[in-house]
Structures are given as C-alpha cells and as structure tokens.
Design brief:
- The protein folds into 2 domains: 2-87, no CATH class; 95-321, MetI-like (MetI-like fold).
- The chain is 76% helix and 1% strand.
- The chain has 13 helices and 2 strands; from the N terminus they run ααααββααααααααα.
- It has helices at residues 2-28, 34-41, 47-57, 63-75, 89-124, 129-143, 146-160, 178-212, 215-222, 227-257, 259-264, 270-279, 283-311; strands at residues 81-82, 87-88.
- It has a two-stranded antiparallel ribbon with strand order 1-2.
- Strand 1 and strand 2 form a beta hairpin.
- The two termini are 13 Å apart.
Length: 322
C-alpha cells in the first residue's frame, strides 16, 4: 500500500512538473503581456522604456530560462502577485477554492445520490417502461447545454418567481454567515447537478447490466437469494468499479469545467477566477489556477485507485496481485 502510494505520488509529481512547463509555455504564447498593457495605458513610453521594462520583467529571456526562474521561486513558496487583484496569488486562490469545493461537493453528491440509484433501478428491469423513462431523463440531461440550463433557471426562479437570487455569493456586509450564502448556491448547484446526473445514470445502468449478466450472479439467484440481495450484495460492488473511474475524472472536470456555470451565475469560484485571469492577462494567477485543477484531477485518480481495492478485494497494490 505505502509503496503503491509512493509510486503514484512520484508519477503525479512528474505529470505536474511536465504540465507546469506546458501551461507556462502556452500562457507565454498568449497575445499581450504586462508590458503591452503598460504601453496601452501610457502612450508616452519610448522604445527604450519598453526594452527596459521587458528586461525588468524578464520577458526578453528564453521561455526555458523564465520557466526555471518561476519554478525555483514556486518551490520556495513564491507564486507571484496577481495583476488583477494586486495581491499574492494564493491569497486570491484560497477563497475561490473554498467556494468551488462547496459548489462541487453539493452538486457531485446530489448527482451521485440521484444518478446511481436511478441507474440501478433501470438496470434491474431492462427495456421496461421505467428503463425507457430513466433513459429519456438521462439523455435529456446530457443533451441540454449547461449555459442554456443556467439561463433558464435564472429566468424561472429569479426573474419570474423571484424566490432565488440570480447570482453572486451572499449580501455584501451580511451577517448571516453560511446561512446567508447557501441560498446563492441553490441555482448553480442545481445547474451542475442536472448537467451531470444524466451521465452518471447512464454509466451506472450500463455497468450494472453488464454485471448482472455474469455467471456468479446466475449462481446467486440459483441459490434462492432475493433479488435485492443479489443486486445490492453481489452485483453493486463490482458494478461500481468502472463508475468510480468516471467519477474520478468527473471530479477534475467539474473542478475546472464549472467555468460556464460560475460565469453565468457570477459565482466567485475557480472556474470564473481562471476565466478572468486568462482574459485579463493575469499570467501568474492563470498559471497557478490551471495547475491546481491538474493537481485535483491527479488526486482524484489516486483516490479512485484506492477505491478499486476497497470495492474488489481481488485488486491488490502489489505487482503479484495485479
């Protein structure tokens, strides 16, 4: 177990290092840099001033050298300053990370609590009326664009009914704490949940159908076990193995892919922060935010590997058991 974790951590660190260089290089290719922004703000700058500024910011050096300087500073805990917020990058990221984790935790929990039971319920009686109804619901959830769904929820609940706020996060200066903020999570959490529950339902149904066709399931039924015990006691654990992979990948996708939802609802999470950083040429903030999304995806994959061994004892961490 410890050896496996050590190997996976080393692999994850290597992937993170490679991705840091790739993201750094791609951000460096974006049009516009801090000096260009200074030029647009002060047209009186001369060419000599521009060259001096590029030298001060290190923009006249090769990308590999600039990346090495950034990496050395990052290893010492210095990730630079955010140009948009005029604060250290981590001081900007921590609140947004907390907001995204709250939104992600609520939406992912609701999607799993709705999608997995629906998938099991449909797979128990395939090609029945309830199976077709669940499939229709799942396909509708998959097919609806997330931006259209978000706008529809705003129009219905914020504009027409007026029962929920259209966006933001709490009333400025409000003293309600989390109770004051939870109501602002309802619409974005509902949007993310409805957008992802269909996929989880389809994956759970397909995995359960495949598991229920196995020989050991027929043996369990031949022994006279009830259908409930066959499904929940014998089939469910094995059916969850491929679904766990999807959930791990979906965790990273939701963390970084909630950009559209957070932008529509003006929710100050990681997705909106990354979008604002890229559009505002805030290179330090965009780089660290994208690396953090990569790190979350890698952590999700490690947790999925650990879940495999818990779901199926035949899966071991040692090479002789694999």
């Amino acid at each position: 177990m410890l050896r496996f974790l050590g190997e996976r951590l080393i692999q994850s660190a290597a992937v993170l290092a490679v991705m840091s260089f790739v993201i750094f290089a791609l951000i460096g290719l974006m049009p516009g840099d801090p000096v260009d922004l200074m030029i647009s703000a002060d047209p009186d700058l001369t060419s000599a001033d521009i060259e001096k500024l590029r030298e001060i910011y290190g923009l006249d050096r090769p990308v590999v050298e600039r990346y090495g300087n950034w990496l050395w500073a990052a290893l010492q805990g210095d990730f630079g300053f955010s140009r948009l917020f005029a604060r250290p990058v981590f001081e900007v990221l921590i609140p947004a990370l907390g907001h995204t984790l709250a939104l992600l935790g609520i939406s992912l929990t609701l999607a799993l609590c709705i999608g997995l039971p629906l998938g099991i319920w449909a797979a128990v009686k395939p090609y029945s009326v309830r199976d077709y109804a669940v499939n229709l619901f799942a396909f509708a959830g998959i097919s609806v664009p997330s931006f259209w769904l978000g706008l529809l929820l705003i129009i219905l609940f914020a504009v027409i009914l007026g029962v929920l706020p259209a966006g933001g996060l709490g009333t400025p200066g409000g003293d309600g704490g989390w109770a004051d903020k939870l109501i602002y999570l309802v619409l974005p959490a509902a949007s993310l949940t409805l957008a992802s529950v269909g996929g989880h339902t389809r994956y759970m149904r397909a995995s359960m159908l495949e598991t229920l066709r196995q020989d050991y399931i027929r043996t369990a039924r031949a022994k006279g076990l009830t259908e409930r015990r066959v499904v929940l006691g014998h089939a469910l654990r094995n059916a969850l193995i491929p679904v766990t992979t999807i959930v791990a990948l979906d965790f990273g996708f939701l963390f970084s892919g909630a950009l559209i939802t957070e932008t529509i609802f003006a929710y100050p999470g990681m997705g909106k922060l990354t979008y604002d950083a890229v559009m505002g040429n805030d290179f330090n903030l965009a780089l660290v935010a994208l690396l953090l999304a990569t790190l979350v995806t890698l952590v999700g994959n490690i947790l999925a590997d650990l879940a495999y061994a818990w779901l199926d004892p035949r899966i071991g961490f040692e090479g002789k058991n694999q």
